[in-house]
Amino acid sequence: MKLRVFILVFILVGGFWFLTSHYSPIVDGHALGHLSLFGPKSTDSSMHLTEADAAPAYDAEEQNNIGIYKRVLPSVVNITSTALVYNFFFQAVPQQGQGSGFILDKNGHILTNFHVVAGANRGIEVQLSNKRRYQAKVVGTDRTHDLALLQIDAPDLQPVTLADSSELNVGQKVYAIGNPFGLSGTMTRGIISSIRSIRNEDGAPIEDAIQTDAAINPGNSGGPLLNSHGEVIGINTMIASNGADQSSGIGFAIPINTAKAVLSDLTRYGHAKRPSLGVSTYPIGPDLAEQMGIPADYGLLIQRVIPGGAAERAGLRGGNEQAYVGNQPILLGGDLIVAIDGQQIADQQDVSAIMNKHQAGDVVSVTIVRDRRQMTFKLQLGEAHDANV
Asked: How many CA atoms lie within 13 A of 64 on its CB side?
């Protein structure tokens, strides 16, 4: 009897040992490992990663972004300007500034901002996307429009393609490529937020400036603003940062058509021969016109004509009777400019926009009001000076 009990206990213990040592049950398609009184044991401590079979395909927008970057990057340059300045102890020390630019042709002409190279009395260095460096010379500058034309002697240059900036629309996509904070080859993207007239840091007007929310930071100045085809529509020039000196989502670019209008002058003369009517003026609105008895509620009242200028040669007249607007003295009695080439003129910015389409020597039609009569004169434009339009 005792033997039977011993044999039965042996069989039960042996069977339990066999099951827990050699049997791995399958649960939800996975082996749980050897059974244990303390739960399943893991015999594999390696890490298993889930990886894609292949890289995912880029969507159409990503492909366009990548295509623009690869196509335009070789045309964008980094510019380092060096100036010799004097410190507190009147010691001469070099000071460097950085910006961007882009290649216009295979002859090495490069367009950038004037303020990027202003005062560079110890040289300007241009670095291409292939990291090669070249010394640049200044071909011409236009401080009013904040433009500078440089040239380098380098082989196998890849020029940009210039677009027409006259038909831009708020909402269209734009891209900026440049050297923000010295980070070369950086591309950002956004949209055209607005097209408006602004003034640069020197107070000069920039007509039809392109406002964008694409990130533009110090070092982007002079670099290209591109449309969705990778064509240059503007030159990145300034940011509205409220003193932070970094992007706040409001950047501005000079329209490329403004640069096109002066490139030939920069090449031939070294400066822009901006056209001018040869007058100094004061803008008139409805309220002021009513108070002074002026027979039109808009226009530019000629204060004086510049001796030898286009207006004087054509017979336009300046004011001869002093009056005051607040504390500001003005002259009455002069001709009131109301249109140029048939386009209504309300302020100096309207004149600047028209002048950007002309060169010195061009002939324009100027419509004025004199003694309550409307008259039209033909003017051959002269060259602008700071004090006249």
From this structure: 13
Query: Does 109 participate in catalysis according to the annotation?
Result: no
Q: Do the domains 70-151 and 165-267 sit in the same CATH topology, yes or no?
A: yes
CATH of 70-151, picked from 1.10.10.10, 3.40.50.150, 2.40.10.10, 2.60.34.10, is 2.40.10.10
253/318 Cα distance (integer angstroms): 36
pTM here is 0.71
Domain locations in the chain?
Answer: 70-151, 165-267, 275-383
Which of 142, 146, 335, 350 is flagged as catalytic?
A: 146
Residue 239's SS3 state is: strand
Q: How far is CA 201 from the centre of its chain?
A: 15
Tokens of residue 92, six digits: 């001469």
Fold category of 165-267 in CATH: Thrombin, subunit H (2.40.10)
Residue 28 is a catalytic residue: no
> Which SS3 state, helix, strand or coil, does residue 329 take?
strand
- From 75, 100, 109, 115, the catalytic residue: 115
Whether 81 sits among the annotated catalytic residues: the reply is no
Say which of 221, 247, 276, 352 is annotated catalytic: 221
**In 12-52, where do the E strands start and end?**
26-27, 30-31
In tens digits, what is the pLDDT along the chain, a chain of 389 residues?
666 666 766 677 666 666 666 555 555 555 545 445 445 555 566 788 887 777 778 899 999 999 999 999 999 999 999 886 666 666 666 677 899 999 999 999 999 999 999 988 788 999 999 999 999 999 999 988 899 999 999 999 999 999 999 889 999 999 999 999 989 999 999 999 999 888 777 777 787 899 999 999 999 999 999 999 999 999 999 887 665 556 678 999 999 998 998 898 899 889 888 888 999 999 998 888 888 778 888 999 999 999 989 999 999 999 988 888 888 888 989 999 999 999 999 888 788 778 877 888 899 999 999 988 999 999 999 887 654 55
